[in-house]
What does this fold into?
Amino acid sequence: MAKTGTFLLWYDIRALLALTCLPAQTDNDGFVFSPWGLSEGASIVASTASPVAPKIRAGVAPLRAGEGYSFLLRRLHSITGIVPIGLFLLEHFISNAEAFKGPDAYGAQVKFLNSLPFVIGLELFGIWIPILYHGLYGVWIWWRGDSNVADYPWTGNWLYTAQRWTGIIALAFMAQHTYYLRFTGTVLGEHPELSFAKVQHEFQNPWMIAFYAVGIIAASWHFAYGLWLFAAKWGITTGEKARRRLGYVCLLLALGLVSIGAASMYGFLTTPRQPLNSSASDNIVMRMR
It folds into this structure.
């Protein structure tokens, strides 16, 4: 009887060791992607006795409450990307599309925008402060985030990385675009009829043409995918099918914005060069003296 008990105990120990020494394996074949309809169905075979592998729940993680003010800051960062920045981006693309009609139409649009009531307050509180907050906080998020596309080349990781880098490119593009048009050379608020010529003058540099093209693509992608993320994280699209459908819509939106931007650039590049009247060039630095 003692020998039998000892044998059974030894058998149980060997079985337990064999079970706990099984190598863990990860199967990533379950990852499914349609335009931004992400489903991380990776199943993991753990080193346990359970024959059923756990499933990673599909979907996008919602905004979660964090420590201190982080939850509020992330909420503000998320919503400012849509309102007012997203609305301003759409308006800006549509307004610049007037360049396709020629210098007169473009100058008339710039004149109209500058004639809006409370234009300084609208720009300050509706454009520049939200952009500064969204951009700087986005840089902070980007700086703290880790890119792991080399280790885990899933589509979701690539989309995450692309969203961060397109945001950096779009922010740099807006900074350069604003500085050149608002703070150098001709004051377009006083001479809107020279707006077309001033952009054409900048396009004399081939590198600036390339920079504009990259900036338009980056801004279009960042807004379109940001809209998809906003809907997913705020619980507007609650199911996989809804997220997939919105993904197609956002993809068409990005392509549409790129097309509008390309049409605007085409108008500047194909129209005969307009004279930039030097007598109207009131350099802001000179005016401040």
Q: What stands out?
A: Confidence is low (pLDDT under 50) at residues 15-34, 38-51, 280-289. The CA atoms of residues 107 and 283 lie 19 Å apart. The chain has one domain: 70-287. The first strand starts at residue 25 and ends at 27.
